[in-house]
Specification:
Elements: H1 2-49, H2 54-60, E1 65-66, H3 76-91, E2 102-114, H4 117-130, H5 136-153, H6 160-174, E3 178-182, E4 185-188, H7 194-199, H8 206-210, H9 241-247, H10 252-262, H11 278-284, H12 289-314, H13 316-333, H14 339-363, E5 367-368, H15 387-390, E6 400-401, H16 402-412, H17 415-430, E7 444-456, E8 461-469
Antiparallel strand pairs: 1-7, 2-7, 3-4, 5-6, 7-8
Helix pairs in contact: 1-3, 6-14, 11-12, 11-17, 12-14, 13-14
Length: 471
């Protein structure tokens, strides 16, 4: 009878022990499932980020994942498929019996930051991070000084063309004496105003006047409708809070400094670029290199013409020269009333020729101060009758160079327009590289949040939400 009692006791004990063992094993399975889910989620989401666009990093030091993956169709669904594939592969056992028997059920990306979101703020955040060590203080000081001078002297707003036209209208009102060329036929005696000779060149185009070889200027043309500034953009959910908290608001000054580091301009073109005058494109936004450079040259000419008019009207010696020449013309015509308006048309024309010389100097690599002194003036009054012949390439001087004038123009540009034109340039250049013919920045993201769920054949299911990105 004792042996029977021992057998029953052992059976009861084994039942309890095995229940405890199986409970421990099942608990271990549950913990292992949770732990593996965490690991697989981490590996999968980091693997997605490891697919960053190589050319975008190489050329522009930006980390973004292209949702087209080299194909034509963009969409976050492509990334969801990649993430699920990475997770599924890491959930499979390496061999032998699967203790966890897990599979990925749902992969849903619920938030993601596209490069062009918030008018390009997502892209500029990365640029601000990249330029964080750049000495922006000197740049800011220079921009503030330059823009204050532009505003102080009205270089952007003063209309010297209208002022010149008023003096020309006064000459018309006074009228010129007439002479009889044949019986009963009279015509005005020509004024022979040298200002008219200089002003006649205004229709020739600035580049044709100031460049030694205008035919060497790039004439590359692009179809702007193919690029981000002229198409409807794909949209994400905006800049993620974590990235914004770390980086703060994008720094526009840093973005401008970055553009001059990564983009070419006249005299400093880049081999990788489609448009050779990229900074000029950011300023002018035209679809042809020549037109962008011409637009910038015209704006330079306008700035310089206002500044030179301000100076020449304050220079008593030059005013005296103009009045002496105008007096001689008025004396020949025996019309003293012409002296003052003719003198001022000469002064305005002289300032125009000097401005052409300034633009030529800048495009030749020289420097020109915003407001001149007598020592900075280059042209003589006789240059009015031989405009092209009087312009000389000059690599010296003081003041600002062409790059610094471009910086002022870009600084004054509308921030959103500047950003989207910059993204145009990036798309143009990346599309020139192998396998990226359809590249578009509004298909690229840098941060994302995914909702993930897995299940096990043993009856367990779990889900989590995680956010990963380049920040």
């Amino acid at each position: 009878m004792r042996k029977g009692y021992i057998t029953v006791f052992l059976a009861l004990s084994l039942t309890l022990i095995l229940s405890l063992v199986f409970t421990v094993i099942e608990g271990a399975r549950i913990s292992a499932i949770r732990m593996k889910f965490e690991c697989v989620a981490d590996i999968g989401m980091n693997s997605v980020l490891a697919e960053y666009h190589r050319e975008l990093l190489e050329q522009y030091d930006l980390l973004f994942v292209d949702t087209t993956y080299g194909a034509r169709q963009a969409g976050i669904g492509n990334t969801e498929a990649h993430l699920k594939q990475y997770m599924q592969k890491n959930l499979l056992p390496g061999g032998g019996r699967d203790f966890l028997a897990m599979s990925a059920d749902q992969v849903k990306i619920v938030q993601y930051s596209i490069a062009s979101d918030e008018a390009g703020a997502v892209l500029k955040r990365q640029v601000s991070d990249y330029m964080s060590d750049y000495p922006l203080g000197a740049v800011l000081e220079k921009m503030n000084l330059g823009t204050s001078q532009l505003e102080q002297y009205g270089l952007e707003t003063r209309d010297v063309g209208a002022e010149r036209a008023r003096y020309e209208a006064r000459i018309e009102e006074i009228g010129l004496p007439e002479e009889e060329v044949e019986e009963g036929v009279f015509q005005e005696v020509p004024l022979n105003n040298p200002a008219d000779v200089a002003n006649a060149t205004r229709s020739s185009g600035v580049l044709n006047l100031v460049l030694e070889n205008p035919s060497a200027v790039s004439a590359v043309k692009v179809n702007l409708n193919d690029y981000i500034s002229h198409r409807t953009c794909l949209r994400g959910t905006g800049m993620c809070k974590e990235a914004a908290a770390i980086s703060g608001k994008p720094n526009e000054l840093a973005f401008q400094a970055y553009l001059f580091e990564k983009c070419g301009y006249y005299g400093h073109e880049m081999e990788k670029s489609l448009l050779k005058y990229q900074i000029e494109y950011l300023v002018a936004g035209r679809d042809v290199d020549w037109e962008n450079l011409e637009a910038v040259a015209k704006r330079l000419l306008c700035w310089r013409e206002v500044a030179n008019v301000i100076y020449i009207l304050s220079d008593s010696a030059k005013v005296a020269e103009a009045k002496a020449m105008a007096g001689a013309l008025a004396a020949v015509l025996m019309c003293p009333a012409l002296l003052e308006p003719v003198a001022y048309t000469i002064l305005f024309a002289w300032a125009y020729v000097e401005s052409l010389q300034d633009v030529k100097t800048l495009l030749s690599g020289g420097r020109v101060p915003i407001i001149k002194t007598a020592a900075d003036w280059k042209t003589g009054i006789n240059s009015l009758t031989n405009v092209r012949g009087s312009l000389v390439a000059d690599e010296g001087g003081r003041g600002l160079n062409y790059r610094e004038y471009l910086q002022l123009m870009l600084f004054l540009q509308n921030p959103e327009k500047r950003t989207f034109c910059a993204m145009d340039v990036m798309e143009m250049d990346i599309r020139r590289t192998p396998g990226n013919a359809g590249f578009r920045l509004d298909a690229c993201f840098d941060t994302y949040q995914a909702k993930l769920s897995v299940s096990s054949q043993f009856g367990y299911a779990y889900e989590m939400t995680r956010a990963y990105g380049f920040y």
